[in-house]
Amino acid sequence: MQRAALRLRRQGRRIALVPTMGALHEGHLSLVRLARRHGAVVVLSIYVNPTQFGPREDFASYPRPFARDRRLAADSGVDILFAPKNLHADDASTTVSESALSRGRCGAFRPGHFDGVATVVTKLFNLTQPDVAVFGQKDAQQCDVVERLARDLNFPVKIIRAPIARDAAGVARSSRNAYLSAAASAVAGQFAAALRQAVSVSDARRRLATVSGLRVQYVEAANNRLCAAVFVGHTRLIDNVPLKKRRG
User: Fold this and answer.
1) pLDDT of 94-128, one tens digit each?
2) Structurally, what CATH architecture does the domain formed by 175-242 represent?
3) pTM of this prediction?
C-alpha cells in the first residue's frame, strides 16, 4: 500500500482516504462520494482495529461482511481497497496519545479507545499518504482528536468532516445499527428525535429520561454541539447535533 501510494504521489496524483472498520452502509458511501470530489484516487481502508476496543466491547462480534463490502466499494467507485489483516506487531510498544480532546464524552467511558484511534490513524496516514482524509461527523470526538493529531504531528493531510448520514427515522447510520431489532430501531429513532429537539444538556437529559428501553451513558456539550451516547439493549449508539441558540 505504501509503495503504491508513494508511486501515485510521484505521478502527481492526489489521494483521498476514507478510513472504515467495514460493514459498509450508506453513511460510508457518502464519505466515498465526498472523497471523490477532493481526490483523484480514493483509497478506502477496512480494518477492525483491536486497539480501540475495550475488554468488554464487541470486537469479536463486530460485523465483518467483507465480500459484500468489497462489492459496495467497487460499485461506489473506490479505486483502492486497503484491507490489511493486521497492522500491529505482536510486540508493538509504540502508541500515539492525544491528551486533551480525548477526555470526556466517549473518552470517559472507553479508556484507551482514543489512543487506539490515534495510533491506527497515524499508521493509515503513513501507509496511504493521503492529501485529504474524510471522517464522519457522527463520531464527533474522533474528528476532534484526528484534527488535533494531524495538526500536532504535522501530517500534510486535510481532514474533512462529512455530514451525518441518517436513515428515514433520523437515526445516525452506523454499522452497529445492524444489531438492532425492529423494536430497538424504534427506540433509536426516539433517541435521535429527543436529541434533535433538545435546546440544552439538561433538556436533552430530561427528554431522554422519558424514552422507554433506552439507557443514557452521557449527554455533554462540546464545540457547540450536543453530544450523547446511549444503550438500546446491549447496543451502544452515539449521536450529536448543533446546539440551538436560545431566544431572547
Assistant:
1) 999 999 999 999 999 999 999 999 999 999 999 99
2) 2-Layer Sandwich (3.30)
3) 0.94
